[in-house]
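Morning!

As promised:
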Amino acid sequence: MSDGLLHGVVYSVLIVSVVLTATAMALWFERKFAARMQTRLGPTIVGPIGLLQPVADLLKLLQKEDIVPDNADAAIFNLVPPLAALAALGAAAVVPFSPSVVASDLDVGVLYVLAIGAVTVLPIFGAGWSSNNKLALLGGMRAVAQSISYEVPLLLSAMVPVILSGSLRLGTIVQMQADHHWFVVWPFFIGLPAFGIFMLAMLAEANRIPFDIPEAESELVAGVTTEYTGMKFALFYMAEYVHTIVASAVGAALFLGGWDGPFFPGLHWMVLKTLLLFTAVYWVRWSLLRFRSDQLMGLCWKWLVPMGVLLVGAAATWVVVFP
Amino acid sequence: MTTFLFYFFAILTVVAAAGVIAARSPMYSAMSLVGTFFCLAAIYALLLAHTIAVLQVLVYAGAIMVLFLFVIMLLSLGEAVGPAKVTFPRVVGGIASAVLFAFLVVAARPFVPVGAQPPPSFGTLQSIGAQLYTQWLAPFEAVSLRVLVARVGAVVVAKSRV
């Protein structure tokens, strides 16, 4: 018991620090990446090639005045930003970064990730409600509606690797892919669409473009974060990036073979795959426009959910026919 | 360590559950309820029932709470309701809960294990699934039927207003 506890604590501290550092670097990376796409330079002033820009941003946010609006519900208003960051970080606990580097390889790992994903809407909702601001409230409602809709295709697509490998343990799912094929490679007609649905649903859950309707700048100022200043805003902002990184890592483990790969140690491959997915997310973010709310719901219920059901059926058939 | 954690979460559960009924604002009640669900999940995990713990968070804290919050927001209830009044339904409800609690205490007593070692497969999804689809198949199907009826009922109720 205490051995397991010690292992859990040590790995949790390690993984949280690594993910948070990665988040800081992701901020810099995204700005540079977006700048390249728009033939700009991006941050260049602070540090070599602007590498210290996240540190400068953080210092700036730390100095900002912390404002709680008069009519806001202060208790919930102050409580939810750390909860948002916590919920985003929570899913990292079961991600296998290499055969041995995993905080806790739960036997219901996939379910755990989905459960944490389902909980992330609560802080967002609390923020929207407690701000006592109509824009924040509308943003919160949109975020919740979007999240609970996209949870369905997310669950269905995550079931595909689970059925194919016969386990809910992320470590076993990766091991299975290392022994046979990555699920996007074979059976590709099941794995590839499932992977696509998974990434789309993950994007929608993390409220990223093209699914950032909850914080549509041109309509809702900044959605639920409208009233937040300084570090509290930074926590929400950070939670979004952490969510994207963790979602990329889970996607890499479920479909892209996780730490499996030639020549290099498993950890390198896992980080590489996570970064690739992460880059893809930002590529989409800076090249596509925002959906309308009805288009979003149409895409979810008319396309992704039926496809997800079909894919789960196909995966089950595949497992029975080619055991 | 386990004992300490159990008491920690048990006390938190009771405090949060008391918060649900003590809070005057429905939003605070809902937030306390979320806390209760999480503490219960922690207690399930301490009892080696990982699957139930995760499902507790996924279904209750994730899905059901969101519906609660939606209802609270759409109804936009007033901030505070007046002080609680003693009415006949409340007295009946109170007595009913007390009787239910007594029954649960009596019913749960024989199951309290004293230093019993659970089998290694205890609480895993495989063992739960195997039991659910063999030993408890009839109750499981009965519950499924009930959920189906509830769903049809919900559609009928909603349809009359559309």
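The interface with chain A takes residues 1-2, 27-28, 31, 34, 50-51, 54-55, 57-58, 61-63, 65-66, 69-70, 73, 124-125 of chain B (CB under 8 Å).

Hope this helps with the figure draft.
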